Amino acid sequence: MSQDTYAIEVAGVKRQLRLFEVKPGIKIAILNILGDAEFVNAASKALAKKLKDKAIDVLVTAEAKSIPLAHALSTDMKLPYVVLRKSYKPYMGDALQSETLSITTGKPQTLFLDEKDRRMVKGKRIALIDDVISTGSTLQGMRLIMNKAGANIVVEAAIFTEGDRAQWHDIIALGHLPVWIDDKK
Question: Which of 20, 75, 151, 184 has its CB surrounded by the most CB atoms within 10 Å?
C-alpha cells in the first residue's frame, strides 16, 4: 500500500499521521503528540471518561512521547503520575530497571523507576499509560518494574492500539491503528 499518511480522529480532533517504514515492507502510522496540546487535551478527556470508574491511585508512563498524555490525565483525573526514564541519573538513587525493545528504533531500551517514585507506587493501584501500544514490549517493561516495586496494576490504557487487535482485548484505548504490510516483499 503506497499511502503517505493515515487519517485519524480522536474526540473530534483530526490528524494525518505520517506512515513510517519500521522494517522492509512494514509501515506504521506515527503518532507524535509532543507539542500537540489540542490533540493531547482531547485524548486525555476522552480517556479519562473511560478510566473514571477504575480505582486508580497513580498513573505511570514511559519516557518520552506519552508524557504529555500522562500530565493531562493527571490534571483531568486529579491523580499523581510517574515517568519511567530511559536513562539512569545518579540522583535517581536505588532505581529499579527493566529492558524493552522499541518498535520505532528496533533496539533494546532500558526503563528506570526513580527511588522516590518507588515509594509513590508501592502498594498503590496503578494505571499504565502509553500513547500507542504496538508490540507490547514497553508495556511489558512497565509491568516488570511495577511488579518489582510492589505496585498493583489495575488497568492499561493508550490513545491507540496497533497491530493484531485480538492481542489487545484488555487495553482501554480510543482507537486502533492498522499495520501496512507490502505484498511485494
Answer: 151
The predicted structure's pLDDT at residue 102: 64
Q: Quick check: is 137 in a domain?
A: yes
Please indicate, yes or no, if residue 66 is contained in any of the structural domains. Answer: yes
Q: Would 82 be classed as within a structural domain?
A: yes
Bridge partners for 182 per DSSP: none
Report how many domains make up the chain: 1
CATH number, residue 116: 3.40.50.2020
Residue 171: count of CB within 10 angstroms of its CB: 19
Q: Are 183 and 155 a contacting pair, CB within 8 Å?
A: no
pLDDT along the chain (185 residues), means of 10: 80 94 88 95 97 97 93 98 92 86 70 93 97 87 94 96 76 92 64
- Taking the C-alpha atoms of residue 48 and residue 28, their distance in angstroms, rounded to an integer, is 26
* 116 contacts: CB under 8 Å, gap ≥ 6: 93
Boundaries of domain holding 113: 33-176
Q: Give 183's contacts (C-beta < 8 A, 6+ positions apart).
A: none
Secondary structure (H, E, C), 158-178? EEEEECCHHHHCCCEEEEEEC
